[in-house]
Amino acid sequence: MKKLDNLRKQLQSIYDEIAKLSEFRETQALKKFKRQLEGESSVIKENIRKITLTQQDKELLKKHRQTQANKKRSSKNRRVWSYIKSIQKNYYPDKSLKEIRNLLKKHRKGLETDISDVAWRNPSP
Q: Would 110 be classed as within a structural domain?
């Protein structure tokens, strides 16, 4: 709780400082200093929020973060799979999907592959 009180005092002092700065003429240096103070206040607010989180809130945030990561990973895998299938369909129907996937990995590393650059850039003819 002592840390929380210190953070709240720091936040209040920053707000007081920003209020005092309104008395001065607007200059570039003043605007820059205000932005810096606002940035510090947002960092302190985030620290206060993290300290005041309960265990249930932390678990919910973790679960939400995991589901978002799974969704992103899933959508990326779907895009890559569609890309590989379109290359196979339009350019190399005789090659297996596994072989094209391995060639894509080599292509991303910058190595030479059997598939032309035209097919990698635009899988649809």
A: no
At 42, which amino acid appears? S
Number of domains in the chain: 1
Domain-located, residue 114: no
Q: How confident is the model at residue 61 (pLDDT cuts 50, 70, 90)?
A: very high
Q: Is residue 116 part of a domain?
A: no
In the predicted model, what is the mean pLDDT of residues 50-78? 95
pLDDT at 124: 84
Distance CA 125, CA 121 (A): 10
Residue type at position 124: S
Query: pTM of the predicted model, to two decimals?
Result: 0.59
Which of 102, 125, 124 lies closest to 114 in space, CA to CA? Answer: 102
The answer to the question of residue 112 being in a domain is no
Structure tokens at 60: 């919910």
Two tokens, residue 66: 């995991």
Is residue 87 classed exposed, middle or buried when 0-12, 13-18 and 19+ CB atoms within 10 A define those classes? buried
State how far the Cα of 84 lies from the Cα of 7, in Å rounded to an integer.
53
